[in-house]
Design brief:
- It is a single chain.
- By secondary structure, the chain is an alpha/beta fold.
- The chain has one domain: Aldolase class I (TIM Barrel, Alpha-Beta Barrel).
- The protein is built from 11 helices and 9 strands.
- Strand 1 and strand 2 form a beta hairpin.
- Helix 2 runs parallel beside helix 3, helix 9 runs parallel beside helix 11 and helix 10 packs across helix 11.
- The longest helix is centred in the last third of the chain and has 18 residues.
- It is globular, with a radius of gyration of 17 Å.
- 45% of the residues are buried.
- The chain binds 1-deoxy-D-xylulose-5-phosphate and ligand LD2JLWAY.
- The site of 1-deoxy-D-xylulose-5-phosphate (DXP) has 12 residues, from loops.
- One of its GO terms (molecular function) is pyridoxine 5'-phosphate synthase activity.
- It is an enzyme of class 2 (transferase).
- Belongs to the PNP synthase family.
- Its EC number is 2.6.99.2.
Length: 254
């Protein structure tokens, strides 16, 4: 892993949702999710992320099991399973015990993830499921909007980390608003760190917006990137794409 400006290693976790999305449009089994994972890991990615939504629009139950089996051969690689713990996520966690569970408050028919957890509304129902994951040896990351004032509540329910929902920053990248967003994300990350939690980040990150984000937002331990990275891989191939994202992470530490 490469150190960013905050002298902490930032892991690249590749979200394979969109490989599965293309695969699902024919009954041919290609593009292969496990082959994509293998090529990304061989190129240096440090993690694999999937978001097995209840409607199986992309990642299916079998994909999650196939990846769990594949990653037995990659003991240093982290497996991050995302989802709503009040829908289908906990069954995967109980059976497969991935390195990390990322709790995301999506409804079943949601187009894509677009917001984080709300406190205090969500606190009491989250607390026991966070504790259960941790009792199984699974780290818990809560998908959160970049709101510094919400970080103490995330810590209070037991979260190990927060994943900052980065779409608002990504949408502002390249505009005068970007600096405002970066300040907001840096403050939210620092608030999480001050509470003793780790900081992850994801959603709409790409090769262009990743370096300025990591230069400004302190101690990001993991970026999970899927949509833009897989789009890049359609043009460049998995190997060159992963290397370009690792270079973007390294440039933040320059
Ligand atoms: C939680 C998040 O922001 C993404 O990881 C999510 O997995 C995107 O889901 P789709 O790939 O279904 O848009
Ligand atoms: N948690 C974010 C993720 O896994 C991938 O999000 P995106 O890069 O597909 O937007």
């Amino acid at each position: 892993m490469t150190e960013n400006a905050s002298s902490i290693a930032t892991a690249l976790s590749v979200n394979l949702n969109k490989v599965a999305l293309v695969r699902n449009t024919r009954h041919l089994g290609i593009p292969s999710v496990t082959r994509a994972a293998t090529l990304c890991l061989e190129a240096g990615a440090q993690g694999i992320t999937v978001h097995p939504r209840p409607d199986e629009r992309h990642i299916r139950q079998q994909d999650v099991h196939d990846l769990a089996e594949l990653l037995l051969k990659w003991p240093r690689v982290e497996f991050n399973i995302e989802g709503n713990p009040f829908q289908n996520l906990m069954a995967f966690i109980r059976e497969l015990r991935p390195n990390q569970a990322t709790f995301v408050p999506d409804s079943e028919d949601q187009f894509t993830s677009d917001h984080g957890w709300r406190f205090p509304q969500d606190a009491e129902r989250l607390r026991p499921l966070i504790a259960e994951c941790q009792s199984l040896g699974v780290r818990v990351s809560l998908f959160m909007d970049a709101d510094a004032s919400a970080m103490a509540a995330a810590k209070a329910v037991g979260a190990d980390r927060v994943e900052l929902y980065t779409e608002p920053y990504a949408a502002a990248h390249g505009t005068p608003e970007a600096e405002v967003q970066l300040k907001r994300f840096a403050e939210a990350a620092q608030a999480a760190l001050d509470c003793g939690m780790g900081v992850n980040a994801g959603h709409d990150l790409n090769r262009d917006n990743l370096t300025p984000f990591l230069r400004t937002v302190p101690q990001v331990r993991e970026v999970s990137i899927g949509h833009a990275l897989i789009a890049d891989a359609l043009e460049l191939g998995y190997t060159e794409t992963i290397k370009s994202y690792l270079r973007a992470i390294e440039a933040a530490g320059a």
